[in-house]
Amino acid sequence: MRRLFFVLAITCISAFSIAAQNGIDTTKLKLEQLTVVSRHNVRAPLQKNVDSTYNNVESKDMLMKFTVPGSHLTERGATLETIMGMYFRGWLKSEGLLNVYKYTIKHKQNSYSIDAVENSSFPNFFFAASPRQRTVASTRAFISGLLHGISAPIYHQELESKDPDFLPYFIEYGIGANMDTAAVNLFKKVAQHEVDSIINVYKPTLLNSYKVLENAVGYSKSKNAKWRKELTTTNLELDWSKDNKEDKEVDLEFRKKTGEIKEPEAKGTLKAANQLSDALILQYLEMDESKKTGLHIDNNDIKAWRAIADIKDIYSKILFTAPMVAVNTSHRLLCQVKIGIENNTFTFLCTHDTSISALLTALQANEYSLPDSLTIEGLTPNGCKLCIEKYSMGKEYYGRVRLLYQSTEQVRNLTMLDYNADKAKHYEVHPKVQHITFKGLECKNGYYKWEDLMKRIDDTIAAFAKVAKGEKPF
Hints:
Elements: H1 2-22, E1 30-39, H2 47-54, H3 75-94, E2 102-108, E3 111-117, E4 125-129, H4 133-147, E5 173-174, E6 177-178, H5 181-217, H6 223-227, E7 250-251, E8 265-266, H7 268-286, H8 302-320, H9 323-329, H10 331-343, E9 346-351, H11 353-362, E10 385-393, E11 396-405, H12 408-413, E12 432-435, E13 448-449, H13 450-468
């Protein structure tokens, strides 16, 4: 018996030693720096798509009327973003990264006034946003929750301008490279092949989603279907004229005819279906009972709602996750991430779902799909936060990359989050988490060596030079 106990003890000690060698004692890690790439929160459907979306449904009564202008952040979206900011406040305070303002109460006759006394500032906190109302407003709401009403500057270009630092525009130039006409043509040829491959992979899923969409909104009875007879939601054929047979589902031109920079752009069925998917997702998140809109879909049919949301996710994959496109369109944003890491304790960059998808693809992240039991959006839900976290343990540094997001239930119920709540007992008051892993990088207990993570970022930034010559980045 004693011998058995001795053998078991030695076995346990050996197992612990192996675990210590192969893993990381996460209890000893200290957060040193946090960089967040955020998607804006719940908005109204894009203004440019509103009219065409109405023309793609059997009845306008199926689509709700938002109380804010098209593409603007809704009141729910602002509230959710403030809630997330409060959660991050608890996180940063617990790690000692957030200097807290203290207040003194001064007696004035029969009343009290509260005067803020700045004992410390927020050095190296940086906030920037895409030049859109929804991203700037989301950042402002996040700051409100993070800093409890204390203002901080938000850096952004003039609203509605084209900023390739935060929007996934094609760029013809970059670090150490210039794209000439021949290189651009070679780029488009290689990228088109990658895009076509992605379409072929997801065509069966899209076809199923189109059928669900048809059942939900009666597209075949809509105004658009009546004059675009060749365009249906049961196939991927485009409504081209006889002279346009060679055109593709996705436009990869770098510039418009006017010379303006542009994003990858969908056409035909994919474009129409994506507009509908976007509008339906937003009203599902915004309303307590989507059945009030007259949709032919049950509010509790999560499988059907995920099928509709799949259209938008696949749209993002087709347009922005071809490696050539991803490295090109995410280049400037990734440079902003690198600058933030090198200069700030906390960096918050508010952008869009397509930008985050391109960024993750460019960094060679492994594919993932968020559980449909948590969210109808499978990739980058409204308000999600891509967190690049730097930790120290003695003289060693480690990195972790996670996607934090509010579940569909938390979004619709405006659930308050609490960082300090026991996660085992109160899972419902914490954001949901998706760990991001990367091809070719060794991961231990969810963490990477910091230098390996930084090398991946540097290599991806440098890969732009290859893409600029029309070569594959990896």
